[in-house]
Amino acid sequence: MEINNIKLTNFRNYTDLSLTFDADKILLTGKNAQGKTNLLEAISYLASLKTIKAKQDNELIKWGENISKIQGSFTKHSSETLLEITLNPPKKKILKVNEIKKNKTSEYLSNIYTVSFSTSDLLLLKGNPEDRRSWLDGAVSSLYPAHADRISKYNKIRVQKNNFLKSLNGNIKINNPLLDVWNEQLAITGSNIILLRINFLKELLKYAKLKHSYISLKEKLSILYDSSIIDTINVENIDEYTSKKIAENFYQKLEQKKTEEIIRAQSVVGPHRDDISFYIDEIDSKKFASQGQQRTIVLALKLAETELIKAKTGYNAILLLDDVLAELDDIRQTYLLNGIEEKHQTIITSVDTLHFDKRYLENVKIYKIIQNEKGADIISA
Ligand SMILES: Nc1ncnc2c1ncn2[C@@H]1O[C@H](COP(=O)(O)OP(=O)(O)OP(=O)(O)O)[C@@H](O)[C@H]1O
Ligand SMILES: [Mg+2]
Q1: For the whole prediction, is pTM greater than 0.70?
Q2: Which residues line ligand 1 (CB under 6 A)?
Q3: What's the 140 CA to ligand 1 centre distance in angstroms?
Q4: How many domains is the chain partitioned into structurally?
Q5: Do both 164 and 235 map to the same domain?
Q6: DSSP of 55-94, one letter per residue?
Q7: Which of 87 and 294 is assigned the larger pLDDT?
């Protein structure tokens, strides 16, 4: 699978860009702050609605502008898919596949898979739970698009419930059946979100373990899902859980927390509060792993993600590597470049070509990105 071309209008520092990718191995070079990461983000967002840096869609629109458009064409096997996103907040974003408007995120996600790996991912373990949830939900949604719809539904109900909690002004005596209705809906939607997250992590771990033990010389990786609803569980033991069981726990938890939620005027339990921990040989990597050990885990996870996509769908994801080579030592660099099969279209950004070996550079198409008065522009180097 590959991206053939992209067109950007008022996307970050691009005013108007039209670019054709006629290669499998692409290197985007340019000085700092020219637009390299922005271009990767545009590709990732268009293909799979996953951002690289932005936490909110409006960060993607060029400063001083109201509307941004991203268009592009992708090929999988031999069929072409045209994708288009128009951002015009506060209106809902418009998503189109082959020029047909799609109302649900799940209908937009069209089996175009990207896996991105950036310097900020190297901080995935040290970062906050929100970053880990966002990586996880993005990865789950591209394989199981219904997950994205469930998350939007869950968040919508949660916002309505929170507004209601605020309107109670901390008055715990008011017993409103509306709260029970919302809690029931949250329990049903939320339990499916949790179950799919854990099942995905279990599948991912199978591949990540192999990758990880290979580079770390036999350290053992495990993943725990830290939930506010069920006990912290090792994802390999998910079989004892069913959606019904999680939903029951969820509802009970919400009952127990009712007073606290009214006093704090917010939803204090649910998948929006959950987190993941990565353990190496029974040790919590968040607290104790060295920088190198953390990098190995993240690298193993990213390579595992591409293998899982291949195993589940038969497609080779497009790999978007943002500046990571400079950050990895020789062993991990070689491992990354060797771990990527030839068949993947790979788009890498780098300030210069110093970190690439000659053989890699011989087969790669290089584009240079320069920011001028009008916005960022690209020249074929
Ligand atoms: N919404 C936006 N509108 C306009 N400019 C933006 C927007 N968001 C980011 N920028 C600017 O785009 C420029 C390029 O950012 P980008 O992260 O793509 O740089 P880069 O080429 O990857 O640099 P580095 O090598 O330092 O990683 C930055 O100067 C940033 O301030
Ligand atoms: Mg960058």
Answers
A1: yes
A2: 12-13, 30, 32-38, 59, 61-63, 323, 351
A3: 28
A4: 2
A5: yes
A6: SSGGGGBPTT-S-EEEEEEEEETTEEEEEEEEE-TTSPPE
A7: 87
